[in-house]
Amino acid sequence: MIKVGHAHYARPCIIYDDGPELQIWVIALSTKEDSQRGQSFKLDSTHPDFPATGLKETSYTIHPMQLVSRSDIGKKLGVLQGSLAKELMDYLGL
Fold it and tell me: What CATH number is given to the structural domain containing 28?
């Protein structure tokens, strides 16, 4: 499960990169801007590339990335692509 604050439960996330063996790096998402220091990226539902994500409404990244077990990853909702993916990578400095 993805941990955000004191909560541990399934939530949408962006799979960023493979981690060591049975782990994977993820960026958790929330429909609320929960970042304490404004460290979130907005995936705006009005963005032309948003529908491909499979998300239902505008979402925000939750800092920091987390290393989780592959077994905690559920079904794939969609893909982050096009200029929305580029904007996120630019925001992350990658």
Answer: 2.30.30
Pairing of strands 42-43, 23-30: unpaired
| Ranges of residues in the chain whose predicted pLDDT is under 50 | none
Query: Do the Cβ atoms of 80 and 14 come closer than 8 Å?
Result: yes
Burial label, 49 (beta-carbon count in 10 A; 0-12, 13-18, 19+): middle
Tens-digit pLDDT profile for residues 13-30? 998 876 677 888 899 898
Nearest in space to 35 (alpha carbons), one of 8, 61, 9, 68: 61
Q: Which domain holds residue 40?
A: 2-92
